[in-house]
Amino acid sequence: MQYIIKAPRQLNQTIKLPASKSISNRALIIHALSGGHVLPKNLSDCDDTEVIIRAFQDMPRVIDVKAAGTAMRFMTAYLATKEGEEHVLTGTERMKHRPIRVLVDALRQLGAVIDYEGEEGFPPLRITGRRLEGGTLEIPGNVSSQFISALLLIGPVLKSGLTLHLTGDIISRPYIDLTLSVMHQYGAVAEWGDYDTINVEPVPYGERDYFIESDWSAASYWYEMMTLSQNDDDRIQLEGLADGSRQGDSSLRYIFSLLGVKTAFDSKQPGQPTLVTLSRRGRPVPRLEYDFINAPDLAQTFVVCCAVMNVPFHFRGLNTLRIKETDRIAALIAEMRKLGYVLHDGDGTELIWSGERCEPAVAQPVPDGQQPVGIDTYEDHRMALAFAPAAFRFDGLRINNPHVVSKSYPHYWDDLRSAGFGIEESEHQHS
User: Fold this and answer.
1) For this structure, is 45 an active site residue?
2) End-to-end CA distance of the chain
3) Among residues 47, 297, 380, 415, which one is catalytic?
4) Sheet containing 313-316: which strands, arranged edge to edge?
5) What is the rounded CA–CA span in Å between residue 33 and residue 24?
């Protein structure tokens, strides 16, 4: 399936953003570990959160998390603590090629019983739950922060608690801090003891009412639209974002200010959602350099946005993009070329655009009987989410397999329609 997208002439809409899946998934694991009965409120309705909710409802022997990387990491640690239970944790074909050895080795050091059902170092996993002793662990700081968060989340239920020493460079530190923040709100005693060491006391979680704030990652696509629209009177209001949020992607406010978008918070009455108003404010910087080591999920948004705005860039800190839902560096290079932009991969951790152009495939004449070229999404939600706003500059832009957005933002296309976008469905697609 293919969507044909036409951007509106004017943006003036209030959008209720989805809840943060990062916070939702952490809160769900903590809720289960606490044995509580009050579910967190305003849970994300995305695929990644739904697989965790279904697993906790049914607890089948074989738990399929599909393409949800967070669920795979967090559930691996959680199931290792479920004394007397045995489960097989599996996912999509892509998931079976996403490495998990670092987490499994760390859990085994804590006493976990985990076996590989297929290739060593990769899912699916057979996990036999038991009461884990805990203690001191060393783990590289440059691995996925989800490995580190998975270990931290179970720290309070370990007999001796957990002391986690992170070696080398520490990437995605805001995601670690987000985990600690949610843990604190459920009564955990968990703190940085030093710049590279986290101590978690064996103090059990308590039950509490907990409300999930909106997702800053989802907000990034509306910032992108505001940047790419050409009407200085445009306004977008986004509901439910927290000022001072622990979400690492909230840093996008600063980066987009460099591209000419102003962020204004409107403090509503207690109990009402916060409104964030986006508006245009002057010219963008002539060139953008940024290290995304702490917010890698924003990379696709800024790659598309900057190139389409004709702002050359050098983006670093993209270490983890190769092992996401797809190889995002390779996917961005391939799909941006379709729009006429020639990107270069620095050393496997960088993306560079110097202004080099090529003939855009999306504008080429199409032989009779063939569909025009569309943007491939590689079973990766963020490819569809980040490329759709480019319709402001490429009228009638086509997105292949658009329903991948359900992984994190199920109502994205409905929200675009409400903002005035024209979205036409075509059953055929041509890459």
Assistant:
1) no
2) 12
3) 297
4) 288-291, 313-316, 351-353, 344-345
5) 14
Side-chain half-sphere of 181: how many Cα atoms within 13 Å? Answer: 16
Q: What are the distances in angstroms from CA 271 to CA 18, 21, 165, 211, 240?
A: 18, 21, 40, 11, 11
Q: Which residues of 118-150 are buried (b: 16+ CB within 10 A; e: fewer)?
A: eeeebbbbbbbbeebebeebebebbbbbbbbbb
- Which residue carries 């769900």 as its tokens? 28
Strands ordered across the beta sheet of 12-16: 12-16, 235-239, 275-280, 261-266
**Burial state string for 212-227 with b = 16 or more CB within 10 A and e = fewer than 16:** bbbbbbbbbbbbbbbb
Please give the structure tokens belonging to residue 133.
């002793």
Q: Per residue of the chain (431 residues), what is the pLDDT tens digit?
A: 899 999 999 999 999 999 999 999 999 999 999 988 889 999 999 989 999 999 999 999 999 999 899 999 999 999 999 999 999 999 999 899 999 999 999 999 999 999 999 999 999 999 999 999 999 999 999 888 999 999 999 999 999 999 999 999 888 889 999 999 999 999 999 999 999 999 999 999 998 999 999 999 999 999 999 999 988 999 999 999 998 899 999 999 999 999 999 999 986 655 456 899 999 988 999 999 999 988 989 999 999 999 999 999 999 988 877 766 778 989 999 999 999 999 999 888 899 999 999 999 886 666 665 677 899 999 999 999 999 999 999 999 999 999 999 989 999 999 999 999 999 998 765 54
